[in-house]
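Hi R.,

Here's the chain you asked about this morning:
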Amino acid sequence: MMDPLSLKKLNAARAARRAIALVSDLGDGRDRIVEEGNQVAGDLGAALEKAFRTGKSGVIEAEGREFFVNIHLPPPRLVVIGAVHISQAMAPMAKLAGYDIEIMDPRTAFATPERFEGVQLDAEWPEEVLKARPLDAYCALCAVTHDPKIDDYPLKAALEAKCFYVGALGSRKTHGKRVERLLAEGVPQGAIDRIAAPIGLDIGASSPAEIAVAVLAQVIQAFRKREIATRMAAV
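And here is the predicted structure, written out as tokens:
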């Protein structure tokens, strides 16, 4: 039976959208909670880092002992700024890949339920939506409107929230102007360098559907290869 304190920590972490693992020693039955990024030494630490990346639970052998690791990852959230053709193609793909996708666009002519049936759709300015549902490290943000008035705020918010992926549609010239605007807003160059622009893996995509594939592939790549910063605090 799980220790009540471990259960309390597990529930709190899940409510706060933090990745967490319940590590049970199969030898003595004791368990402990480890959050993603907590420092764990040796082979167990390396195995836990791999498990956090893959999201797969299972038995781990380390230091001559066996542990069962039960991984709990927050559902990755894909936030798309722009109710455009690329977004229409990406929505069903993202769902199949296990992503909670939502689309924001204040342009009500584009953001219609008919074009995005069964998708979380907000025909409001991203500033307003993100106040109620802020971004976090388990979010990916794709800005695809080509309109700085709509794209810039959520891009800045995504960088500040340390989203695991931040991408923006547009040519290199367009991105150069975007960089100037973000710098003027006080965003550090190091953070801006995290923006994938032009957006998507370079597969020669041309049509909206192909671009959607390229973008979603890049999102998945960023999620599975994300950097897990080590924190010294124990849980």
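One quick note: The domain at 77-224 is CATH 3.40.50.720 (Rossmann fold).

Cheers,
M.
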